[in-house]
Write a structure and sequence with these properties.
This protein is elongated. Strands 1-2-3 form a three-stranded antiparallel beta sheet. The chain has a single domain, classed as 2-Layer Sandwich (Double Stranded RNA Binding Domain). It has two helices and three strands, in the order H-E-E-E-H. The longest helix is centred in the last third of the chain and has 22 residues. It has about 80 residues and is α+β, with helices and mostly antiparallel strands. The chain starts with a helix and ends with a helix.
């Protein structure tokens, strides 16, 4: 996933992306936060994914999203 794809997917699912303040070590930490859609009376699941880059955090969130959404679809 490149940066354009990451931002596009986050917009589609109304997700948010956060980054830590610059650290003296030079390391960056990124957090992607999304919620799966509501399913009937059930609220959507909150997904919080971490990564060393925005692309890595977003890809991790998308992977969790796909697993959760796939599990919901297989039971219906």
């Amino acid at each position: 996933m490149n940066s354009e794809e990451a931002l596009s997917w986050l917009r589609q699912v109304k997700g948010q992306l956060y980054r830590n303040k610059p650290h003296t070590s030079g390391k960056k930490a990124w957090v992607a936060v999304v919620r799966t859609p509501q399913e009937g009376a059930r609220k959507g699941k909150l997904i919080i994914a971490l990564g060393d880059s925005m692309e890595e955090a977003t890809a991790a969130a998308e992977g969790q999203w796909q697993r959760l959404w796939g599990n919901l679809g297989s039971t219906h």
